[in-house]
Amino acid sequence: MYKTELVSAVISAEKAKGNDLPKGKVESIVNSLFETIRDTVKTDGKVQIIGFGTFSRVTRPERTAYSGLVKREITTPSY
């Protein structure tokens, strides 16, 4: 599901409850939710929303890979 589909689903769910929310307001709320999750993971390392999911930061070590484009081994940086 893409973000635009999520916004449409929220609008539909709220209409079914008798609430008429403007699309711009729902987009703003969804964007704020994702920004808050991103910022919290960046600073605290983990966000857990029971019944929805857990978001955490994973550090990957530097590794050696083969590039078919340049036909040689390359080193990918850690991230």
> Which regions contain 5 or more consecutive residues with pLDDT less than 50?
none
Overall form: elongated
Tell me about the biggest sheet?
2 strands, antiparallel
The helical percent reads 40-55%
Order of helices and strands: HHEEEE
Q: How many DSSP helices?
A: 2
Q: What is the first-to-last residue Cα distance? A: 26 Å
- Extended strand count: 4
Please identify the oligomeric state.
Answer: single chain
Strand order of the largest sheet: 1-2
Q: Approximately what portion of the residues adopt beta-strand conformation? A: 15-25%
What is the strand and helix layout of this fold?
Elements: H1 3-16, H2 23-44, E1 46-49, E2 53-56, E3 63-67, E4 72-76
Antiparallel strand pairs: 1-2, 3-4
Question: Which labels suit this protein?
Answer:
alpha+beta, two-stranded antiparallel sheet, 2 helices
